[in-house]
Amino acid sequence: MILERAAVPPFLKNGFVVGCEETREAIIIDPGDEVEDLLQAVRAGRLKVTNILLTHAHLDHITGVGRAKEATSAPVWLHPDDNFLYERVVQQGIAFGFRVEAQPPVDRFYDGEGPIRFGKYGARVLHTPGHCPGGVCLAVTREDDPRPTLFVGDTLFAGSIGRTDLPGGDMETLLDSIRRVLFTFPDETPVWSGHGELTTIGQERRTNPFLT
Ligand SMILES: [Zn+2]
Ligand SMILES: [Zn+2]
After folding, report:
1. How many Cβ atoms sit within 10 Å of the Cβ of residue 159?
2. Which ligand is nearest to the CA of 63?
3. Which ligand number lies closest to the CA of residue 164?
């Protein structure tokens, strides 16, 4: 699996390029202010981006959507329950004190688990509300290897969980999503969060103070 990550101030939000090393097909996950770094990785890897997948629609995760779509012509996917946030990205910016451009409309809404395929890989879409109503986690696996890599947006962090004080957030719902969906994966499963460093399901199961 080809995996590139980038993050820039002020949000230090992780954007990802995930690609198939055989076919060079790839996805972009959560393009934000670091989108030019992601597109540079796409060019350097001679990748063909077939889909742009959003874990949720908080502004830090979507400010690069328009640029990513312009550069790749790939469709943008979002859970329908977050479209109210997506459509209000300019107002989200005002609320946080940032000037943010409106983004092009979502092309496709997640409808079940998928998977959304790219080359020999597929991204399964797991609805994990709580941080926001339409939050999803993406479980990426190669077709001949059942071991997934998780991209969890702001649902779970190394040593923490997503905030629940923004519109549509709910702490009990978030904890339930983590336990019911994420904690069914094996301990060794890698977890890439929307902010911060790589962790694993086992590490968070054992040590995360919100979940122990
Ligand atoms: Zn968020
Ligand atoms: Zn975030």
Report:
1. 14
2. 2
3. 1
Distance 112 CA to ligand 1 centre (A): 21
Per-residue pLDDT reduced to its tens digit, 137-167: 999 999 999 999 999 999 999 999 999 999 9
Q: How far is the CA of 174 from the centre of ligand 1 (A)?
A: 12
In the reported structure, the alpha carbon of residue 60 is separated from the centroid of ligand 1 by a whole-number distance in angstroms of 7
Strand order in the sheet with 76-78: 2-6, 15-19, 25-29, 48-53, 76-78, 108-109
Full-prediction pTM beyond 0.85? yes
Q: Tell me how far apart the alpha carbons of residues 61 and 7 are, in angstroms, rounded to a whole number.
A: 11
Say how many Å lie between the CA of residue 32 and the centre of ligand 2.
10
Question: The tokens 């923490």 sit on which residue?
Answer: 160
Split at pLDDT 50, 70, 90, the class of 128 is: very high
First-to-last C-alpha distance (Å) of the chain: 31
CA of 135 to the centre of ligand 1 (A): 8
For 182-210, how does the pLDDT look when each residue is reduced to its tens digit (9 = 90+)? 999 999 999 999 999 999 999 999 999 99
